[in-house]
UniProtKB/TrEMBL annotation:
Record keyword Signal present: yes
SAF domain segment(s): 45-113
Key words of the record: Signal
Signal peptide start-end: 1-22
Keyword Signal: yes
Source organism: Methylobacterium phyllostachyos
Protein name: Pilus assembly protein CpaB
Amino acid sequence: MKPARLAVLGIALAAGSGAAFLMSGGDPPPPPAPIKAEAPPVPMNDVLVAATDLPMGQVLRAADLRWQAWPDGAVNPGYMSRKTNPKALDETVGASVRSSFLAGEPIRAQKLVRPESGFMAAILPQGLRAVAITTDSRGTNSAGGFILPNDRVDVIRTFHKPVKMAVGERDSQISQTILTDIRVLAIGQLIQEKNGTNVVTGETATLAVTPAQAEALTLAGKDGSLSLSLRSLADAGAPAAAPADTPQAQMPDDALTVVRFGIAQQQTP
């Protein structure tokens, strides 16, 4: 073999060896990027929801309701879906709200009152009765008109009673709390405060009472006048109690407050 060919062959072998050496000492090639598998689409269903906040007592219009996409697996059996009842929106228009809804909350039949049903009877808790008492439209016997539906009140009876004096009898006015922590269902025809109204006046206040309380309330209204005393939210559910260091706390439960010449005194019947 000629020397020139041997030289070319030697150079080629040297170059190949150097290339192999360089390749063996470098970083391995990066692995191929994993192929991301796309998740299957979530089955959706249209659910009837409140288009805006719906207070108790509101009569539903078509604008108050709308269809909203909802994951099919999260649809509660109590929801109204387009798949099970395509006419649910039209059928719900005209019903009254028994319990308030927030915007976007699914509509449920349990929280509605159909037009053919009595609304007051529907919102009245089981075992209670609705009794209306007359109130002054100026608010003189209803905390200035600041009593609203769902507030808690005490019922005060004021009546005349002859009191024996040293020289005969004197007709005195007596004030007595006959019911405590009573829920107000409605003021006049208003069932719920609306549009940010803070003062409501009406000729009647409808209260939720037991049958025995209904009898006592009706009797008290026949021989005296009734007033409502608004309770604080912090006192709701707690019985009315007088402070331990007051004379009222030392008197029996059936003691009466007698107002004579502007001075209040306790008297046991």
